[in-house]
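Why show two proteins at once? Because comparison is the fastest way to build intuition. When a single record is shown, students tend to memorize it. When two are placed side by side, the eye starts asking what differs. So, the first record is below.
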Amino acid sequence: MSDSRSGAWRCMVCGYIHRQSAAPDECPICGAAKSYFEAMATEAPIKAEFDARTANFSGNLVVLGAGIAGISAVEAFRKATSGGTVTLITKESSLPYYRLNLTRYLAGEIGNDELPIHDRAWYDSNNVDLKLGEEVADISLGDRRVIMRDGSGMPFDRLIITIGAHPFVPPLAGAHREGVTALRTLHDARLMLKQLRPGMTCAVVGGGILGLEAAGALAARGAGVSVIEGGEWLMPRQLNKRAGEILLKHVNGLGIKVVSNARTKELIGDERVMGVLMEDGRQIPADLVVVATGVRPNSQLARRAGLAVKTGVIVDNHLRSSHPSVYAAGDVAEHMGVLYGNWTACQYQGGIAGINAAGGDAEFGGIPRSNSLKVLGLELSSIGKFEPDGPECMVLESESDGEYIRFVFKDRQMIGAVLIGDAAVSLAAKDAIEGRKDFSGVLAKDASAAQVAEGLRTT
């Protein structure tokens, strides 16, 4: 961790950006320690805010969706200009909140007061008309109006679409039964809390980050929990097999049962779910089933309006859609064929869209593919390519004292890493991979993974 000249720090675990001169002692989103914050030496959104301050926007900005992308858009817009009107519309009835904190809320680690991103006074003081519990039914691009569900219209000069994504529920028989839910909103979490009781059995379909965190939260509430994962090991998109095995041991130690290589056939029961039937005939009893099998962008509103949509709303480097006055950011936006679907990208994209809507000129050039994770109290980092992609690649591994290290090298450069238990090495490895650092001298000495890690740690 080094001094930040930009006044911005990014949490390597959840991607939260802290815009202060020093990193916080603890991440307010995921609870990661100060050591997990990296200084952001250059941050385009902050620089662009100053470029946009001369903008004299006097029209109507409407932002659809109040997740982190929508809030970041409003924040950046208001930093760029105090002119014009801002209307923020969300279907949810609660003040906009940190979605990443839902599992901590479900586990009882935080309360209602710690969920909101801003209090109500913040919206009033920044001249933001926050409309809670309201839904947009249509967008009329011809006369630049959004049509509300009650039939009323709202004009806009600039529109930012940040309506996110919805849980993907596979076409399983019995998915309609009472007691089957996803965990995407605060409403979902509160419904689950109403149903929970000590000793009840729960099944989580999906062994990714959300599925594991949901399982941990339910276990913390006294439920017996099983996680059903279709892959050979947990989190196969982020971890190699050995790292997945270490994670499995940790999860089992928390009293959570994991069923791997499992294919769900049906959610059995009557009106209420009673269990999960696997394709191999096994049955897992469950009074509550949480489906955590990914999300899909809420692109149908933009598609109906006539905007260019592939899987998500297609945007350029300025986050502008196919209509010059309409921007999109976050889970609903598709940039250069990529749907990022993570906190960091949502926050960045929202800020850039807000700046540009105010008249700025900020660009989104993509973000590195890296994941620093805090899964049930276990710190994991997966950066770049964690599996070799050819015979010319070299893999170095070591494991000791609860730490696991795996580096992948190609053409004298580190192209990937998986690390468990050391934030300093994670940050240094990320810098080395992104900076294309030359490791030829180190590799020529037949260094071990532990020696490479120590070199990264000391630098």
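Second record. Ask yourself what differs from the first in the token line.
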Amino acid sequence: MGNLQDIINQNRAWYCLECGKCSAVCPITYWETRAYCSPRLLIEKALNSHSADVYEDPLFWSCLTCKRCSELCPSDVLFSEFIRDTRALARNDGLSGDCTHGEVIQAWGQMMTDPDLDQNRLEWLDRDLRVSQDSEVLYFVGCLPYYQVQFKNLGIEGLEIARAAVRILNHLGIEPQVLSDERCCGHDQIWQGDIVTFDALARLNLERIKATKAKQIITTCPECARTLGLDYPNRVGEHGMEVLHLTQLISRQPNASMLDWDSEKRKCKATYQDACRLSRHLGVYEEPRALLHASGLELVEMERTHRSSLCCGTSCWTACGKVSKNIQVERLKEAKATGAELLITTCIKCQIHFKCAQQDPTLEDDIAIPIRDLTTVLADRL
């Protein structure tokens, strides 16, 4: 981890030109009213070696690490990574962000670091879903079973996504392995700066993943895909497997655009939310859109899309408040303005955050639009 100076060097913070392009696109900068904050100003504080000033900046714990600023930075400053690494430094000093939902999500992550924890993770597998003990494909489910319980009141598609994923894989002739003792991937922990918990989760998952002898890991969660594919090898250890989001796997199949889609399904207009981890973090933009088109949906894009897409407003279950709500409402209004009948995303957290914002009765008419995961939509149309 090193010190602040090391983090500055590793993430190219010295190269900041103070041009302000990051300030112009940062959604936190736009909505934060307590004090003016921006990526540029936070880097300036770090360069002046005032770590206390960095920790106290309103942007430090609320930064979405969405990489929108990195898309425009002429100096290739790795701002999201700078935030991630500096948060780990702050945690060492006993500091942390304001956790949401009573810290229950952080708590279950910490509980899963117990090697002797006895989980019951496979009851969601319906009898018609075919899985295998020796498949070359491992489906990493992530925290969907836990989100199903925690956010049931929002009507989210939690385990529906997992079931839909296995159905699609079965449709492709794949009977995946599914881990009975899988742990949280650790995405939120590493981006909150909780490296101790992240390392413990990663080591347990790596042990179980390697034991499967699979060749591919498939996820329906962009955060799992990023964490397993990039952060595990870089920070904990190699697993030697290719990590793909489900949309990438489907798109690789021969004649993927000609899969057995149900022609009787009604054609409707849909708009697509680029999840930050799948899009700007992993560079996956076209595969989901191609599958939407192939399945018979008419895609209508929002004003900000692809690399300029607006985040769902909250990251790592911290600092969720008025600023996050404003970002979510802004994005939902943008989706509604397209005239689409459906907002589709690939990230369960996007769905949770948007559906949470929709609970405000005063905004119902302005932001009311059905929200679904791409996985369940595709499964329904096969």
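One difference worth noting in the second protein: The mean pLDDT is 93.
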